[in-house]
Amino acid sequence: MRKLWHFHGGIHPEERKTCSNTHPIQPAGLPPRLIVPLQQHIGAPAKLLVSPGDKVLKGQKIGQAQGRISVCVHAPTSGTVTAIGLHPIPHPSGMLDTCVIIEPDGLEQWCPLTPCEDYATLTPAQLLERIREAGIAGMGGAGFPTEVKLHPPRYDKVNTLILNGVECEPYITADDRLMRERARDVVLGMEIMAYILTPGECIIGVEDNKPEAIAALKTAAKGTRIEIVTLPTKYPSGGEKQLVKILTGKEIPSGKIPADVGVMCQNVATATAVYQAITFGRPLISRITTLTGEHIAQPGNFDVLIGTPVNWLLAQVGHQSENTGRLIVGGPMMGFTLHDLTVPITKTTNCLLAASQRELPAPPPAQACIRCGMCEQACPAELLPQQLYWFAKAEEFAKAEHHNLFDCIECGACAFVCPSSIPLVQYYRVAKGKIRQLTQEQEKADHARERFENRQARMAREAEEKEARRRERAEAAAQAQVSKREQTTTEGSQDKSAQIQAALERVSAKKNPDNDVSRNTAVAAEASQPPPDLESLKKKLLRAQDKYDKMAAALEDAKQHNSDRVEALESATVSSREALAKIQAELAAHPEHKATNVATPPQGPDIEVLTQQLHKAEEKLQLMLATLDDAKANKPETVEKIERAIEKNRERVAAARQALSEARNLGNNETAQPPAVHSRNAVKESP
Amino acid sequence: MALMRLTSPHAQGSRRTADLMRMVILATLPGLAVMTVFFGWGNLINVLWCSLLALGCEALVLKLRRKPVLFYLRDYSALVTGVLLGLSLPPFVPWWVSLVATGFAIVVAKHLYGGMGYNPFNPAMVGFALVLVSFPVAMTTHWAAPGALTGGSPGFFDTLAIIFGNGSAMEIDAYTMATALDVYKHEISHNTAAAVTANPLFGSFIALGWEWVNLAFLAGGLALLWQRVFTWHTPVSMLLALSAMSLIFGWDADRFVPLPLHLLAGATMLGAFFIATDPVTSAVSNKGKLVYGAGIGILVFVIRAWGGYPDAIAFSVLLMNFAAPLIDLYTQPRAYGHAQPKRGIKEAGE
Prior knowledge:
The complex is a heterodimer of chains A (about 675) and B (about 350). Chain A has 21 helices and 17 strands. With about 675 residues, chain A is an alpha/beta fold. In chain A, helix 1 (about 125-135) crosses helix 4 (about 185-195), helix 3 (about 175-180) packs parallel to helix 5 and helix 4 packs across helix 7. The radius of gyration of chain A is 44 Å and the shape is elongated. Helices cover about 60% and strands about 0% of the residues of chain B. Chain B has 17 helices and no strands. In chain B, helix 1 packs parallel to helix 4 (about 75-90), helix 1 packs antiparallel against helix 12 and helix 2 packs antiparallel against helix 4 (about 75-90). At the A-B interface, strand 15, strand 16, helix 9, helix 11 and helix 12 of A face helix 1 of B.
């Protein structure tokens, strides 16, 4: 006798299995129309292989598995593809999905199959490929591709292979009847799986409320190493995590899969599908579905073609549609309600429950939670459902996660026992959904921020590189000029050269008193070149000056607002100042400019320079005023400082103006000062 | 007819909150019956009076809060509060003390905190503690003497007259007596255990009448346990902690109340099975309930042995009500698939 472990909690809901398990499995028949969804499994939908009007044979592949996690889809009978398009599928949300509509021709003509008498002649890899091609996905409810599951990640060794024949949900008896009637198929299917996985032990777990199934399996498993283990009836013993615990004593770590502890669970119906697929080459085109509930006149288990419309199927068993309270796909604990009965039966539809109002009445209005703790005693995951309920209700998601919300398997035991009729599972579903949504949004926001930061960094880098390139080019050009001039120096007149030298000395004395001699000579050499156009030089100077001023202002602004651009701006300002100085030197060295300089009285300051100084001071003042406005709005603590600076600047402007007017009086070559500048400044200064 | 669109689970167990409350009320009946046998009609009248007041206050507040009155009255929670108060108050306490206690319990301790399920403190005990500190004389001198010692308890109408104000002080004195716990606590300071227990108040067993009252409440509590209305954790840990404290610190019967008197006199069993087990105000996990119950047991002994009050259920329960949320943070069970239980609380953004 095998030692069995216990899992915490669990409940004993009324089983109501005898409604449907007393009759043998019957074929459901051929409906006038089959609706085959391309995705009946977890993973990528199958790729469509047919088009409307095509003739298909029974078992012909109409959807090709694509991607790692996917399975193929086959025509359940021979006939014609009449349409391909969106059709409601059995899903809690009532969503539509791509389905192939087939009109049967009634001939049930099979496509050519590739049977295999002895699976041992094939390699495990070949077997897995056939299982994938046969379209087998977990038939217990989740529909995970069986071939993928039989490949444990990293090829972890599976020590224990478990077939799940627990069927702990009330009402459902599809696996019960299957085990009773096709025990041999179950055992042979398990042997194929065991051949692929080479596990240490093979167990079929069945609840003790199915004695006939246990007896049939024991007979069928005689002579094999498969052990049939009887479990005490308790919901949810059939949950994968709970079953693993009961049979092995191991717990699947949170967020992991059974393979991580060397265990694999497969459903008994999946095992028969594997057997059929390998031995006879038959793809998965039908399954056993329980039709039960008080509103079904002839409840029982039926061998139903995949794609059979639910409404047609219900009509075959005398469904009284007018008073049915709810129509549930799956069992009363974890199933979901249907509202559109045109949906098809899929590979995972194990039960249709047409319940009367009497057997599953509408829930009474929820009362306050009194933290009675019944839910906690029932929770198979050993959570604190009452606390999770509070956190979910208050949207305290961090606390809910801390209380292991995501270990909830939504078995419904808590809501079942809740004396206040609180729809607890619904609260958990909503909380999980919201947390997932928030996580996604957070990830998106993080990505966006990262992208933005990267872009900023890239732009700064590019600007720097551009500036460096520009500087290199300018230096190269200057050097080229120098070498060119060196060739032509001798041609320059001695007299002119002396004049230039004098002017240059004067200018450099005025502008750069600490300039060294070498520089002066370099400039002298430059100046001796055939002079560039004076006008363009002046323009260049103005532009450079303007640029420098803007840079300086931006830098100041950045400094005041603690911007992180300060460093970049500083280097830009420095290079701009260098460029400006260079142009100024060039201009000063220009023969024509020198001529004008010479023409003006030497003691009189340059009006041009003075005007520019005034401009500069005025512009600076404006910027400061703007900064002041900004500071008043945003940074009141810096206002005083800025005001002081403005006052100083005003004095400077006034001094510059004074100097300019004096210079104008002195010099006769007065250029008209644009009055607009003055008036504009006056307006600006007034506040 | 349209099909219902509901999420799982679709099946539901049959037990409702009202059923739980009704079971609690029924389970107090043996204790109430024994009280009536030994101490007269006082407690029964108090229970009825407090229940009436509780339902009245509940209905009034529900009306003011614009809640469906009948829907909430039918959960019997107010009735439970009334019954527990009626059982806790001294049998001959004047009617207005019950009024203050019940009114405060329902209006302030329950509804001002949000109503059913939201109250952090046990409403009945809040009401009891309020009148205990506000009206100490009424609360300590109106305990009924066992009928056997006074030549029979007063009749039903006499009791009614005493409670509702027409009984003379002389008459009350004839029927009242300090409780056994009170007497022992005060006389043991200048007397030996043998001399103290010679008082007929202690009867031949432990404390005349009280031992049977406590055993009746124990029986009622065990019935609730059997019916799985609550788990064993709180009452068992409370009684064990009280016993342990008594054996460790109060082993000397010449100085302290002895263990049998601790367990079977006063409100010990009522407190352990009917008051400490109030789910709303206790810790939630099984581990938490063990800590919570032990805390009550320890505090009961501390207050009885070294405090000013002969009994201490109300204060102990209220103090542990304070601690319950904190206990919850550190007694989470280990969830399936986790190596360690989680502890504390995760701050948002952590």
